Amino acid sequence: NAGVTQTPKFRVLKTGQSMTLLCAQDMNHEYMYWYRQDPGMGLRLIHYSVGEGTTAKGEVPDGYNVSRLKKQNFLLGLESAAPSQTSVYFCASSSTLPHRGDRGQNEQFFGPGTRLTVL
Amino acid sequence: AQSVAQPEDQVNVAEGNPLTVKCTYSVSGNPYLFWYVQYPNRGLQFLLKYITGDNLVKGSYGFEAEFNKSQTSFHLKKPSALVSDSALYFCAVTPSNKIIFGKGTRLHILP
Fold first, then answer.
1. What residues of chain A lie within 8 A of the CB of B94, using their CB?
2. What is the mean pLDDT of each run of 10 residues along chain B (111 residues)?
3. Residue A92 burial by CB count (10 A; 0-12/13-18/19+): exposed, middle or buried?
4. Do B44 and A111 touch (CB under 8 A)?
Protein backbone atom coordinates (compact mmCIF):
# COMPACT_ATOMS: atom_id res chain seq x y z
CA ASN A 1 0.00 0.00 0.00
CA ALA A 2 1.25 3.46 -0.89
CA GLY A 3 -0.68 5.09 1.97
CA VAL A 4 -1.13 8.81 1.37
CA THR A 5 0.60 10.36 -1.62
CA GLN A 6 0.85 13.99 -2.67
CA THR A 7 1.76 15.66 -5.94
CA PRO A 8 3.74 17.71 -6.65
CA LYS A 9 6.52 17.59 -4.05
CA PHE A 10 7.76 21.09 -4.79
CA ARG A 11 6.33 24.08 -6.62
CA VAL A 12 7.26 27.71 -7.13
CA LEU A 13 4.51 30.12 -8.14
CA LYS A 14 4.36 33.79 -8.91
CA THR A 15 1.83 35.95 -7.10
CA GLY A 16 -1.56 35.64 -8.74
CA GLN A 17 -0.96 32.24 -10.35
CA SER A 18 -3.17 29.29 -9.60
CA MET A 19 -2.44 25.66 -8.90
CA THR A 20 -3.95 22.45 -7.59
CA LEU A 21 -2.38 20.06 -5.12
CA LEU A 22 -3.47 16.46 -5.38
CA CYS A 23 -3.78 14.04 -2.49
CA ALA A 24 -4.56 10.36 -2.92
CA GLN A 25 -5.04 7.60 -0.34
CA ASP A 26 -5.46 3.87 -0.85
CA MET A 27 -6.68 2.95 2.64
CA ASN A 28 -10.38 3.46 1.91
CA HIS A 29 -10.51 6.19 4.55
CA GLU A 30 -13.66 8.24 4.82
CA TYR A 31 -12.03 11.37 6.20
CA MET A 32 -9.39 13.53 4.55
CA TYR A 33 -7.67 16.76 5.57
CA TRP A 34 -5.42 19.51 4.26
CA TYR A 35 -2.99 21.20 6.66
CA ARG A 36 -0.32 23.82 6.29
CA GLN A 37 2.84 23.80 8.37
CA ASP A 38 4.67 27.02 9.09
CA PRO A 39 7.73 27.44 11.34
CA GLY A 40 6.80 27.87 14.99
CA MET A 41 3.08 27.46 14.28
CA GLY A 42 2.60 23.71 14.15
CA LEU A 43 -0.07 22.37 11.83
CA ARG A 44 -3.16 24.36 10.96
CA LEU A 45 -6.21 22.80 9.34
CA ILE A 46 -7.24 24.40 6.04
CA HIS A 47 -10.18 22.24 4.91
CA TYR A 48 -11.37 18.73 5.52
CA SER A 49 -13.84 16.22 4.12
CA VAL A 50 -16.05 13.71 5.91
CA GLY A 51 -16.80 11.73 2.78
CA GLU A 52 -16.99 11.72 -0.99
CA GLY A 53 -18.68 14.88 -2.24
CA THR A 54 -18.34 16.75 1.07
CA THR A 55 -15.99 19.49 2.21
CA ALA A 56 -15.81 21.73 5.26
CA LYS A 57 -13.75 24.70 6.41
CA GLY A 58 -10.99 24.34 8.93
CA GLU A 59 -9.05 26.92 10.88
CA VAL A 60 -7.47 28.83 7.97
CA PRO A 61 -9.62 28.31 4.83
CA ASP A 62 -9.32 31.74 3.20
CA GLY A 63 -7.64 31.71 -0.20
CA TYR A 64 -8.10 27.96 -0.68
CA ASN A 65 -10.74 25.74 -2.22
CA VAL A 66 -11.09 21.97 -2.10
CA SER A 67 -12.96 19.19 -3.83
CA ARG A 68 -13.56 15.52 -3.08
CA LEU A 69 -15.12 14.07 -6.21
CA LYS A 70 -13.75 10.60 -5.49
CA LYS A 71 -13.35 8.97 -2.10
CA GLN A 72 -9.64 8.37 -2.60
CA ASN A 73 -8.74 11.88 -3.79
CA PHE A 74 -8.77 15.28 -2.10
CA LEU A 75 -7.71 18.32 -4.12
CA LEU A 76 -6.53 21.64 -2.73
CA GLY A 77 -6.70 24.66 -5.01
CA LEU A 78 -5.15 28.08 -4.85
CA GLU A 79 -6.98 30.39 -7.24
CA SER A 80 -4.69 33.41 -6.89
CA ALA A 81 -1.55 32.61 -4.94
CA ALA A 82 -0.14 35.09 -2.44
CA PRO A 83 3.28 35.14 -0.71
CA SER A 84 1.47 34.44 2.59
CA GLN A 85 0.61 31.02 1.18
CA THR A 86 4.27 30.02 1.06
CA SER A 87 4.25 26.95 3.28
CA VAL A 88 4.53 23.19 3.43
CA TYR A 89 1.20 21.53 2.77
CA PHE A 90 0.26 18.16 4.19
CA CYS A 91 -2.64 15.95 3.33
CA ALA A 92 -3.90 13.38 5.82
CA SER A 93 -6.60 10.75 6.05
CA SER A 94 -8.27 8.73 8.79
CA SER A 95 -10.95 6.09 9.15
CA THR A 96 -12.81 8.15 11.72
CA LEU A 97 -12.59 11.69 13.03
CA PRO A 98 -9.81 12.33 15.59
CA HIS A 99 -12.33 13.27 18.27
CA ARG A 100 -14.37 10.11 17.70
CA GLY A 101 -11.94 7.58 19.14
CA ASP A 102 -14.93 5.62 20.38
CA ARG A 103 -15.74 4.78 16.77
CA GLY A 104 -12.49 3.16 15.76
CA GLN A 105 -9.07 4.07 14.45
CA ASN A 106 -8.85 7.82 14.80
CA GLU A 107 -5.18 8.48 14.16
CA GLN A 108 -4.33 10.34 10.99
CA PHE A 109 -2.04 9.15 8.21
CA PHE A 110 -0.04 11.89 6.55
CA GLY A 111 1.40 12.33 3.09
CA PRO A 112 5.02 13.42 2.51
CA GLY A 113 4.13 17.06 1.94
CA THR A 114 4.30 19.68 -0.80
CA ARG A 115 6.69 22.61 -0.39
CA LEU A 116 5.14 25.66 -2.05
CA THR A 117 6.89 28.96 -2.56
CA VAL A 118 4.98 31.99 -3.81
CA LEU A 119 7.16 34.82 -5.10
CA ALA B 1 -9.56 29.10 24.72
CA GLN B 2 -8.75 25.48 24.06
CA SER B 3 -5.08 24.91 23.50
CA VAL B 4 -2.14 22.57 23.65
CA ALA B 5 1.33 23.67 24.68
CA GLN B 6 4.74 22.20 24.10
CA PRO B 7 6.84 24.43 26.35
CA GLU B 8 10.22 23.48 24.89
CA ASP B 9 11.15 24.38 21.33
CA GLN B 10 14.14 22.06 21.51
CA VAL B 11 15.34 19.26 23.77
CA ASN B 12 18.89 17.91 23.72
CA VAL B 13 19.62 14.48 25.17
CA ALA B 14 22.72 12.32 25.11
CA GLU B 15 22.36 8.95 23.43
CA GLY B 16 21.46 6.26 25.94
CA ASN B 17 19.91 8.70 28.40
CA PRO B 18 16.17 8.86 29.11
CA LEU B 19 14.23 11.52 27.27
CA THR B 20 11.06 13.46 28.02
CA VAL B 21 9.15 15.76 25.66
CA LYS B 22 6.53 17.78 27.48
CA CYS B 23 2.93 18.49 26.51
CA THR B 24 0.19 20.20 28.47
CA TYR B 25 -3.31 21.01 27.36
CA SER B 26 -6.29 23.12 28.22
CA VAL B 27 -9.54 21.71 26.88
CA SER B 28 -12.88 20.91 28.38
CA GLY B 29 -14.28 17.44 28.75
CA ASN B 30 -12.31 14.25 28.24
CA PRO B 31 -10.09 14.74 25.22
CA TYR B 32 -8.13 12.20 23.25
CA LEU B 33 -4.39 12.83 23.12
CA PHE B 34 -1.85 11.98 20.45
CA TRP B 35 1.86 12.12 19.75
CA TYR B 36 3.17 12.32 16.20
CA VAL B 37 6.75 12.39 14.95
CA GLN B 38 8.10 14.13 11.85
CA TYR B 39 11.44 13.12 10.36
CA PRO B 40 13.20 15.56 7.99
CA ASN B 41 11.35 16.10 4.72
CA ARG B 42 8.64 13.65 5.70
CA GLY B 43 5.03 13.81 6.79
CA LEU B 44 3.91 13.22 10.35
CA GLN B 45 3.78 9.66 11.64
CA PHE B 46 1.52 8.47 14.42
CA LEU B 47 3.38 7.36 17.57
CA LEU B 48 0.74 6.73 20.19
CA LYS B 49 -2.56 7.90 21.60
CA TYR B 50 -4.54 8.00 24.81
CA ILE B 51 -8.23 7.24 24.57
CA THR B 52 -9.18 5.85 27.96
CA GLY B 53 -8.00 3.37 30.55
CA ASP B 54 -4.39 2.91 31.66
CA ASN B 55 -2.65 6.25 32.04
CA LEU B 56 0.61 4.85 30.63
CA VAL B 57 0.39 4.35 26.90
CA LYS B 58 2.99 2.48 24.90
CA GLY B 59 3.64 3.25 21.26
CA SER B 60 6.00 2.78 18.36
CA TYR B 61 9.81 2.73 18.54
CA GLY B 62 9.88 2.21 22.31
CA PHE B 63 8.11 5.46 23.14
CA GLU B 64 5.52 5.80 25.87
CA ALA B 65 3.46 8.63 27.28
CA GLU B 66 1.82 9.23 30.61
CA PHE B 67 -1.58 10.85 30.83
CA ASN B 68 -2.01 12.94 33.97
CA LYS B 69 -5.50 14.32 34.25
CA SER B 70 -4.88 16.45 37.35
CA GLN B 71 -1.90 18.16 35.73
CA THR B 72 -3.49 18.11 32.24
CA SER B 73 -0.28 16.73 30.80
CA PHE B 74 0.69 14.03 28.33
CA HIS B 75 4.49 13.86 28.35
CA LEU B 76 6.31 11.64 25.87
CA LYS B 77 9.08 9.46 27.26
CA LYS B 78 11.67 6.90 26.27
CA PRO B 79 14.01 5.10 28.67
CA SER B 80 17.08 5.15 26.40
CA ALA B 81 17.42 7.61 23.52
CA LEU B 82 18.82 6.70 20.11
CA VAL B 83 20.40 9.08 17.62
CA SER B 84 17.69 7.99 15.19
CA ASP B 85 15.07 9.47 17.55
CA SER B 86 16.18 12.95 16.46
CA ALA B 87 13.10 14.51 14.89
CA LEU B 88 10.28 16.99 15.39
CA TYR B 89 7.58 15.81 17.80
CA PHE B 90 4.01 17.07 17.90
CA CYS B 91 1.46 16.66 20.64
CA ALA B 92 -2.20 16.89 19.61
CA VAL B 93 -5.44 17.02 21.55
CA THR B 94 -9.07 16.72 20.55
CA PRO B 95 -11.60 19.09 22.03
CA SER B 96 -15.17 18.19 21.29
CA ASN B 97 -15.16 18.56 17.53
CA LYS B 98 -11.63 19.06 16.21
CA ILE B 99 -7.95 18.32 16.70
CA ILE B 100 -5.37 20.89 17.81
CA PHE B 101 -1.65 20.37 17.25
CA GLY B 102 1.07 21.85 19.39
CA LYS B 103 3.85 23.86 17.79
CA GLY B 104 6.30 20.99 17.98
CA THR B 105 9.45 20.18 19.92
CA ARG B 106 12.68 19.43 18.12
CA LEU B 107 14.51 16.56 19.76
CA HIS B 108 18.28 16.30 19.28
CA ILE B 109 19.97 13.12 20.43
CA LEU B 110 23.68 13.69 20.80
CA PRO B 111 26.04 10.78 20.00
1. 98-99, 101
2. 92 97 91 93 92 90 94 96 96 85 95 93
3. buried
4. no
